[in-house]
Design goal:
Blueprint (H helix, E strand, L loop, with lengths): L2 H29 L2 H19 L16 H4 L19
Helix pairs in contact: 1-2
């Protein structure tokens, strides 16, 4: 899953969970059944999981292009500058 696919999966998950929460609340209220409300919401969570967790092809529309190992060796690795001077000491 690429970065944009992760963002899409997150957005789909949020929308579906909100929709199923509202639908389950309305269904539970109209039918007067807490059990029905919980079953509808549990079904929504299950469906949301089946849609957003697997790595479906539409989540991989923008794959990252990685360098080949041989190509990466041509470029120098960045060096971290380390200061030998400690705070509070004078030279």
């Amino acid at each position: 899953m690429d970065w944009q696919g992760q963002k899409l999966a997150e957005q789909i998950m949020q929308v579906l969970l909100l929709v199923f929460a509202v639908v389950s609340l309305v269904a539970g209220y109209v039918l007067g059944s807490f059990q029905t409300m919980m079953l509808v919401y549990a079904g929504g969570v299950t469906l949301t999981t089946l849609i957003t967790v697997p790595n479906w092809p539409f989540f991989n529309r923008h794959p990252l292009k990685w360098l080949d190992p041989g190509e990466a060796e041509k470029y120098p690795k960045p060096q971290v500058a380390v200061s030998s001077k400690k705070k509070g000491t004078k030279k």
